[in-house]
Amino acid sequence: MLKPGPSHPITVTPSPRRVTVTANGRTIVDTTRAVTLQEASYPAVLYLPREDTDMTALEPTESHTYCPYKGQASYFDIVTDEGRLSDAVWSYEAPHDAVPDIAGRLAFYPDKVQITEH
């Protein structure tokens, strides 16, 4: 496990905007409670609450990845009438202590869904 620091900063801040996520024309998320994770020089990632997510559109997969700064991520497919988007969503169920604010929240690959900040 690595800890964020000056050479690899990580910040998590509330997003001031309403965020919607759509996949194949179906709205999956509509929230005003997103948080933005900024990690080093990587693009910022929105993490969205499950309470504002249509969880009936998500199916857990067997996929997992590991980040030494955040911990183990698990993945979900998005299933719509138009098809399945494989491993389009990830979540850190029990992230490392450095990023507790993303626990259980969902992040979406922007090349697989449409993420709009209003």
Automatic annotation (TrEMBL):
Pfam families: NTP_transf_9. Gene3D superfamilies: Domain of unknown function (DUF427). Residues 19-111 form the DUF427 domain. InterPro entries: DUF427, DUF427_sf. It comes from the Bacteria. PANTHER family: BLR5716 PROTEIN, DUF427 DOMAIN PROTEIN (AFU_ORTHOLOGUE AFUA_3G02220). This is DUF427 domain-containing protein. The lineage of its organism: Bacteria, Bacillati, Actinomycetota, Actinomycetes, Propionibacteriales.
